[in-house]
Amino acid sequence: MSKHSQTRAAPSSDSRSAAVLVPLGVGAVLTGVAWFYLVGAAIDFGVLAVNGNARAWLFTLGASVGAVVCMMLMLALVARGLRVVGLISDYKPRRAAPRRRRH
User: Fold this and answer.
1) Could you report the per-residue pLDDT of 5-56, keeping only the tens digit for each?
2) Burial of 70 per CB tally in 10 Å (0-12, 13-18, 19+)
3) 77-93: buried (b, 16+ CB within 10 Å) or exposed (e) per residue?
4) How many CA atoms lie within 13 A of 29 on its CB side?
5) Pick from 37, 35, 24: nearest CA to 79
6) Which of 7, 28, 37, 60 could be a cystine partner for 45, CB 3.0 to 4.6 Å?
7) Nearest to 27 by CA among 74, 72, 65
8) What span, in angstroms and rounded, lies between the C-alpha atoms of 88 and 80?
9) Letter string b/e over residues 34-57, b meaning 16 or more CB atoms within 10 A of that residue's CB
10) Phi then psi for 50, rounded to 5 degrees?
């Protein structure tokens, strides 16, 4: 047998993109669920805080910050997934040459 017949074929781009898309999709769904839970918690703690429970303000703040972080992470994961699929390109325009000043 020759060396060439023993080498493995490279995985196709479809299997590589599927291997990347599954964790991205699961992560996006989990962060979406966490966001939904944290928004509900922030609303509930906010109601308690307005009704006179002073410590509830701290929990309202924590749940609100957590919800913002979860939403940003979910959007980043979705954007990465769209980039892997090819719906968003990684195009970066070149910078224009600097203009010379007239003296």
Assistant:
1) 555 555 566 677 788 899 999 999 999 999 999 999 999 999 999 999 999 9
2) buried
3) bbebbeebeeeeeeeee
4) 6
5) 24
6) 60
7) 74
8) 9
9) bbeebbebbeebbebbeeeeeebe
10) -65, -30
